[in-house]
Description:
Order of helices and strands: H
Shape: rod-shaped
Bound molecules: zinc ion
Strand content: under 5%
Radius of gyration: 29 Å
Oligomer: single chain
Distance between the termini: 77 Å
Structural class: mainly alpha
Helix content: 55-70%
Amino acid sequence: MSDEDYESLVAEHRKSQKEIDARIKSISGVSMQEITTELEKEIEQAKNKIAPQKTPACPECKAPVKPGDRFCASCGAKLEWKMQ
Ligand SMILES: [Zn+2]
């Protein structure tokens, strides 16, 4: 391979690299937005699955308790509502 051939190959490679970069930017720019929107939806759905109605649980027996209850209806443990 002559130097000239090599130079032209490098130039060609750089050119196509730039084109690929530009394509990736334009493609990923759109799809990343879509992916982010989809992910946010899925995260919201996952959150709702984990805590359907934000039901608090007894720290002792993990039974669901009503917000504001002073004692667990299941085991009688005293409940504290520091954050409310
Ligand atoms: Zn309990």
